[in-house]
Hints:
Layout: H1 2-17, E1 34-45, E2 73-88, E3 91-100, E4 107-118, E5 124-131, H2 153-159, E6 165-175, E7 178-185, E8 198-209, E9 212-228, E10 252-267, E11 274-292, E12 297-315, E13 318-334, H3 338-344, E14 354-363, E15 368-378, E16 384-399
Antiparallel strand pairs: 1-2, 1-16, 2-3, 3-4, 4-5, 5-6, 6-7, 7-8, 8-9, 9-10, 10-11, 11-12, 12-13, 13-14, 14-15, 15-16
Amino acid sequence: MTHSIRFLALCLIPASVFAHEQEQHSTVAAQPKLTIEAAASTTWNSQTAADSNGLWRIPGALMGGHALPAQKGGKIDDAAVWGSYHPSQRTTLNAGLAVHNDGSASVEVENLSVDHQFNTPKPLSISAGVIEPEFSPTAHHHPSTDTFADANLVADAFWGRSIHDKGVRIAGKPTPNLEVGAEVWNGDFFPAKSGDGAQDVYIKWQHTHQDWDIAAGGWAMQAQATQRSDERYFDGGHTHATATATLPVDVKFTGDTQMAGSWLSVDAPERHGIRPQLRYEAAQTQSNGQLADTTHTAAYKTDHLGFAITPSIRFRDYQLSYRFEKLSLDNHLSGNGAQVLAEETNLINSANPQRQTWQIAGQVRKNWGWRVAYVKDHTLATADQRVNVGLTWQDKLLER
């Protein structure tokens, strides 16, 4: 945990430098009483991202959650509808439903919560119910509203792509540009386990000056798990694997995971119709516990690092983007079952996984977009290349 605390301290330096902004009293901006929005995305992939067994397990990383591979052919990525209702000036009711391409075609409740802002000298709010986290912009991936159809590799490997869980968030704004918050979760997401719980704290800073839009943040999380399986392939008899997949051995993890990270978003001023942008995210995760199958056990410790950097250029209705992602995975297993469990969980890795994506995207009409991407993927033992072509749709269905 010492390394995580040191890493978090470095994450918080940029925000703390700008913490002395002008103060303000708690106010609530005028907003529509009822808003309903929807979005959908479809993508065709030239190749699958899974291995020869039909699975996606990055060598050196235990995985879970919604971190599922891109599949060859065309499929609906997601379809979502969400809305908010304001029964009073300081209270908001939120709801959101979505269907994701995870092989189940089931409708998931991604948001069902109430937000309330207190009448305090400094803005202070509480959110409770099924909520999405605020610690990172990539903590909840929606292909229909995100730049890329593929999720951030750090998010896939470290917190299972998307988090939607029962929880409570308390957030305050000591200055107009600075937000600090704490979130407590049931733990129904990787790397935690439902009922075992997870907690995080975060800080976010935003500033606009002479057409520069800058945002940055830092966070830390602790998650607990007892007998956690890879829920993508072992989830009460239900599996997200393809019909031809060969399932791995069900190895369970019991222990604690500490994570810390930082992110940065910069939009430069527009010049001659061109606006450069930069997105950056880095995270560290450390686990300490035990791995076990039906006959073997081993002590398990990890120290993993990852980052993703995405420079892009917007020109009118077009955006050219490049994303480079890399993981550094360090595992230590000890005990009589160490070698067997390392092989069963695919924790033996000879290289650091990385992935590069080149993409061009544009708008067909106000609500319709397209994107074409070339992906050079070195996340598995055998590198592959693929092309994906997609369409996105977003619309505001109701506002009054």
